[in-house]
C-alpha cells in the first residue's frame, strides 16, 4: 500500500484572516469607545474559552456553551442566547473552518454542498416565520432536548462511533440530496430557533448513516455551522434585527473564540476525539437536567414528562438512522464485491476464448 505524501498546507491564509479580524476588533473596541462594554461582559468571554474549544473539537457550535451560560446562568432571554450563538459562531466557527481548509483536512464534500444549499434556502424561512412564533420557554426546551439526546447517544454509542474508518461512499448525487434535505430541515426548524444544531444533525447523518470517520464528520460539521452562523447573523441584521445585548457580548467573546475554536481543531488531534466527546456528552445531559430543574414550575409535571419523552423520541430517531445506515452500508459493500468479482473474471474469460 502506497503512502500518500502530506498535503500542502496554506496556514498563511489563516494568519492573514486573524490579522484582519483582530485589527477590526481593536478599531471597534478602542476606536469606537467600547472598551467599557468589553470589561463589563468579561464573564461571557471566559465562558467562551471553553465554548470555542468545544466548537472546534466536536460537532457542536460554540453556542452550545454560550446559550446555556447566557440563558440559564445569567438568566437572559433565550432569544438573546440564540442571536448570540449566531454572532459568536460567525467568528469562532469561521476561524476554525478557515484553519481546517488551510490544513486541507478531509471533508464530506458532496453532503456538505447539499447541506449548504439547503441551509441557504431554508434558514431565512425559519428566521422569518418559525422562530418568531416559538416562545422563550420552548426555545430552552428544544435546545435542552436535542442536545441531551445527542449526549446520551454518545454515552452508549461512543465506541462504535469512534471506531469508524474512512467513510462509506454511496453516490455523490445521493449524498448531495441527503445533505440538501438535512440542511433544509435542520436550518428551518432547529438552527433558526436555537442558533445551533445544523452541525449536529449533519454529523449524525455522517456517523450513523455513512459510518464516517470522526476526522471527516467533525470538520464537516464545523464548516456547515460556520456557513449557517455567518448567513444567519447577516440575514438577521438586514431583515429582523438582533436582540439588545448581543453586540456587547460579542465584542467581549469574539477575540477569544477566534483563536479558541481553531485551537480545538488542533488539540483534539493530539488527545483524541473520544475523551472530548464523552466530556461534552456529559455536559449535554447536565444542561438538560439543569433546564428541567430551573423551569420545573413553568413546565409542570406533564411538561417535564414530555421533555423526557422527547429525548427518547430523538434517540429512537438516531437508532432508526443507524439501522438504515447499516442496510445501506451492506448494500454498498455487496455492490462493490459484485463489481470486483466481475472485473476479476474478465481476464479469465478472455484467456478461454
From TrEMBL:
PROSITE patterns, per the entry: PROKAR_LIPOPROTEIN
What are the alphabetically sorted keywords of the record?
A: Cell membrane, Membrane, Transmembrane, Transmembrane helix
Tell me the InterPro entries matching this sequence: TM_pro_TauE-like (IPR002781)
Q: How does it sit in the membrane?
A: Multi-pass membrane protein
The Gene Ontology CC terms held by the record are: plasma membrane
Task: Name its cellular compartments.
Answer: Cell membrane; Membrane
Where is it mainly found?
A: membrane
Q: Where are the transmembrane segments?
A: 12-30, 50-72, 84-101, 107-130, 137-156, 176-209, 216-238, 250-270, 299-318
Membership in a protein family: Belongs to the 4-toluene sulfonate uptake permease (TSUP) (TC 2.A.102) family.
Protein's name according to its UniProt entry: Probable membrane transporter protein
Which species is this UniProt entry from?
Answer: Prosthecobacter debontii
The root-end lineage is: Bacteria, Pseudomonadati, Verrucomicrobiota, Verrucomicrobiia, Verrucomicrobiales
Amino acid at each position: 500500500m502506497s503512502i500518500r505524501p502530506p498535503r500542502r498546507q496554506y496556514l498563511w491564509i489563516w494568519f492573514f484572516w486573524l490579522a484582519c479580524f483582530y485589527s477590526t476588533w481593536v478599531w471597534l473596541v478602542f476606536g469606537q469607545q467600547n472598551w467599557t462594554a468589553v470589561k463589563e461582559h468579561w464573564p461571557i468571554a471566559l465562558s467562551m474559552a471553553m465554548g470555542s474549544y468545544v466548537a472546534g473539537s466536536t460537532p457542536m457550535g460554540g453556542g452550545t456553551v454560550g446559550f446555556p451560560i447566557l440563558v440559564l446562568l445569567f438568566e437572559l432571554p433565550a432569544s438573546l442566547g440564540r442571536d448570540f450563538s449566531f454572532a459568536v459562531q460567525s467568528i469562532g466557527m469561521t476561524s476554525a473552518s478557515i484553519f481546517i481548509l488551510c490544513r486541507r483536512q478531509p471533508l464530506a464534500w458532496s453532503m456538505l454542498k447539499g447541506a449548504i444549499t439547503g441551509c441557504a434556502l431554508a434558514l431565512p424561512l425559519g428566521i422569518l416565520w418559525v422562530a418568531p412564533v416559538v416562545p422563550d420557554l420552548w426555545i430552552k426546551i428544544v435546545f435542552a432536548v436535542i442536545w441531551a439526546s445527542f449526549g446520551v447517544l454518545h454515552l452508549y454509542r461512543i465506541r462504535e462511533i469512534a471506531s469508524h474508518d474512512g467513510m462509506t461512499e454511496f453516490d455523490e448525487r445521493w449524498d448531495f440530496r441527503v445533505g440538501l434535505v438535512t440542511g433544509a430541515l435542520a436550518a428551518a426548524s432547529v438552527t433558526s430557533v436555537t442558533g445551533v444544531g445544523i452541525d449536529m444533525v449533519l454529523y449524525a447523518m455522517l456517523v450513523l448513516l455513512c459510518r464516517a470517520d470522526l476526522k471527516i464528520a467533525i470538520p464537516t460539521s464545523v464548516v456547515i455551522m460556520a456557513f449557517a452562523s455567518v448567513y444567519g447573523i447577516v440575514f438577521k441584521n438586514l431583515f429582523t434585527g438582533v436582540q439588545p445585548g448581543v453586540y456587547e457580548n460579542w465584542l467581549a467573546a469574539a477575540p477569544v473564540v477566534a483563536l479558541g475554536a481553531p485551537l480545538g481543531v488542533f488539540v483534539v488531534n493530539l488527545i483524541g476525539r473520544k475523551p472530548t466527546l464523552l466530556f461534552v456528552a456529559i455536559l449535554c445531559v447536565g444542561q438538560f437536567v439543569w433546564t428541567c430543574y430551573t423551569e420545573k414550575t413553568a413546565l409542570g409535571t406533564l411538561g417535564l414528562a414530555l421533555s423526557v419523552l422527547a429525548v427518547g423520541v430523538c434517540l429512537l430517531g438516531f437508532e432508526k438512522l443507524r439501522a438504515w445506515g447499516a442496510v445501506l452500508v451492506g448494500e454498498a459493500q455487496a455492490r462493490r464485491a459484485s463489481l470486483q468479482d466481475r472485473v476479476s473474471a474478465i481476464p479469465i474469460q478472455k484467456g478461454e476464448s
